[in-house]
Amino acid sequence: MNTKTKMNNRKLVRARVRAKISGTSSIPRLNVRITNQNIILQLIDDESQKTLVGVTTVGQKELSKDSMTKKAQWAGNKIAIEAKAKKIDKIVFDRGYKIYHGRVKSIADSARKAGLKF
Known about the structure:
The chain starts with a helix and ends in a 5-residue tail after the last helix. It has 118 residues and is α+β, with helices and mostly antiparallel strands. The protein has a single domain, classed as Nucleotidyltransferase, domain 5 (2-Layer Sandwich). The protein is 40% helix and 19% strand. α2 runs parallel beside α3. It has helices at residues 3-20, 68-85, 103-113, and strands at 29-34, 39-45, 50-56, 92-94. The protein has a four-stranded mixed β-sheet with strand order 3-2-1-4.
């Protein structure tokens, strides 16, 4: 499979997922972005097009030697704590084009364990 086909398939999957979910100010969308070395999570209000809470592993020196799964657990826990501080307890999970498995599942499990409902 060449790169153009792979990128096109990712766009299609992302669009299919996003067509079904949308965030509001009371129930924001948890957007997950995973790169080769970092994890970026955002709680987004799609109605006003604003990011309510954001967490990233970029620049976290205590996580530099950890595995990506440990980073995912840390990020899921941290986003839940910051969401609770903003009085957000329900969210909609947006996995993007990623399969709900491994790191994505680890993020969701740790956010649920810290108190978020979705």
